[in-house]
Design brief:
This protein is of the alpha+beta class. The protein has 12 helices and 9 strands. The chain has helices spanning 10-27, 31-37, 42-50, 68-82, 84-103, 106-118, 234-270, 282-310, 316-341, 352-360, 369-384, 396-401; strands at 123-126, 142-146, 149-160, 167-173, 183-189, 195-200, 211-222, 272-273, 276-277. The strands form 3 sheets. Strands 2-3-7-6 form a 4-stranded antiparallel beta sheet, covered by helices on one side. It has a 3-stranded mixed beta sheet with strand order 1-4-5. The protein has a two-stranded antiparallel sheet with strand order 8-9. Strand 8 (272-273) and strand 9 form a beta hairpin. It is globular and about 80 Å long. It binds acetoacetyl-coenzyme A (CAA). Acetoacetyl-coenzyme A is lined by residues 92, 95, 125, 127-128, 134-137, 158-160, 180, 235-236, 239-240, 242-243, 316, 365-367, 371, 374-375.
Length: 411
């Protein structure tokens, strides 16, 4: 395990405070209304842009505040505490623009990132398709090269923020015969001819942020909107982006859990049964104690992940752990919060039901938790090859039975 200091600078504290104020003043009082109406909280996003929060993860030289992935995690956690759906509405701007930070040319970074940071360009990340979800390499959307650029054909599914986005990072097959260089990423604008939204999905949770089917009907993008210097790097860029963006999902989960916990504690101290506040019953106390402990564990695992990402370390394994643990925790904590609210918890005029509905998608998007466990296990197998000192304590017969090789290969 890498040792990495987690340092909270004044800039981190400042963005967290700004996010907290927006969350309390502009999210909490309106979250139920936006959920019911499936309407976007424009006022809160405008304020986030005004406060410079959309530049949190963008380096200073490209118009951001350079507070990194740790800054992103702090902001998203605060926003999600008061409205988990707004947490993703905000964080998806990071998911859509991180490919530019990771793989963009200097020109592309200078052209687009300042506009993302100012809030002029909202972003989306178009990777998943009807028949390619967990198998992100199995895309069928294709881009064909022609004079001066590329033409994109096909359809994407579950594009979060799709119908609101100005910039869509679209992953498409450019070399069907290649195994490792099959896919490239393109910067698509919502004004490009041939781009359209088929529909915004009718969802169980996160109802105030659109999740769209996006259609690329021969969308022409000039050469300077192929992400990076050359074609074929799209799959790597998508995986590296997800490594950096998963702390954003984990932060949504931590915020969701923390918000549900706060509501449950508040309710348990007010609600009386058998002439006592229900918080005085040990079974309720035990539930709250576990909810708080698991939320705190998820929070610090995520801060560690974010600090490692900001230090430029490889975070594939720990980001998968953080996403998986935090999102499982959010679902469990939100479920227990509903339980503590009892019958009222099941009612939509009480706020806790929305946390329960909003939590579920966290275990699914940006890589299902099954995919996260696969990534963790693959990394463990790789690391096992570096632990030769353990070999000597494994009985010789076992080593011989495996032909002298205890670990190796892919799983
Ligand atoms: N960083 C850099 N490179 C990576 C990488 C990483 N984290 N992970 C894999 N790669 C590279 C590998 O080294 C390999 O390179 P070579 O070909 O040069 O050897 C190549 O990519 C292929 O890697 P794998 O063999 O591991 O690929 P795979 O086909 O087995 O897939 C997977 C691995 C982990 C399952 C991957 O497909 C995956 O992450 N799936 C989930 C996708 C996902 O998260 N989708 C959600 C999208 S966003 C969303 O939810 C919608 C929204 O709007 C919020």
């Amino acid at each position: 395990m890498e040792l990495q200091n987690i340092i909270f600078t004044d800039a981190h504290k400042e963005v967290r405070e700004k996010a907290r104020t927006i969350a309390i003043e502009l999210l909490l009082p309106h979250a139920a209304k936006h959920d019911k109406e499936e309407s976007y909280n424009e006022a809160a996003m405008a304020e986030a842009a005004k406060q410079g929060l959309l530049g949190t993860w963008i380096p200073k030289e490209y118009g951001g505040s350079g507070v990194g992935i740790l800054g992103l995690a702090l902001v998203v956690e605060e926003l999600s505490k008061c409205d988990p759906a707004f947490g993703v509405a905000f964080a998806v701007n990071a998911l859509g623009s991180i490919p530019l930070i990771i793989g963009g040319t200097e020109d592309q970074k200078n052209t687009y990132l300042p506009k993302v940071a100012s809030g002029e360009y909202a972003c989306a990340f178009a990777l998943s398709e009807k028949f390619a979800g967990s198998d992100a390499g199995g895309l069928s959307v294709r881009a064909e090269q022609e004079e001066g650029g590329w033409r994109i054909f096909g359809e994407k599914k579950w594009t979060t923020n799709g119908s609101r986005a100005d910039l869509i990072t679209c992953f498409a097959v450019t070399d069907p015969k290649s195994r490792s260089r099959r896919i490239s990423a393109f910067i698509v604008k919502n004004t490009d001819e041939g781009f359209s939204i088929r529909l915004d999905e009718d969802k169980m949770g996160i109802r105030s942020v659109p999740v769209s089917e996006t259609v690329f009907n021969g969308v022409f993008v000039p050469d300077d909107r192929l992400l990076g210097e050359r074609a074929g790097l799209g799959f790597k860029h998508s995986m590296m982006t997800l490594d950096w963006a998963r702390p954003g999902v984990a932060a949504q989960a931590v915020g969701t859990a923390a918000g549900a916990l706060d509501l449950a504690v508040t309710y348990a101290t007010q609600r009386k049964q058998f002439s006592k506040p229900i918080v005085s019953f040990q079974m309720v106390q035990a539930m709250l104690a576990d909810m708080a402990t698991e939320t705190e564990a998820a929070r610090w695992l995520n801060y560690q992940t974010a600090a490692l990402a900001d230090a430029g370390k490889s975070v594939s394994k720990i980001a998968a752990m953080s996403k998986c643990f935090a999102t499982d925790t959010a679902v469990k904590v939100a479920t227990d919060a509903v339980q503590i609210f009892g019958g009222y918890g099941f009612m939509e005029n009480y706020p806790v039901a929305k946390y329960y509905r909003d939590a579920k998608i966290l275990q699914i998007y940006e890589g299902t938790n099954q995919v996260q466990r696969l990534i963790i296990a693959r990394n463990l197998v790789k690391e096992a090859g570096k632990m030769e000192h353990y070999t000597s304590v494994i009985p010789k017969e076992t080593q011989e039975a495996f032909g002298g090789e205890l670990v190796g290969g892919n799983c």
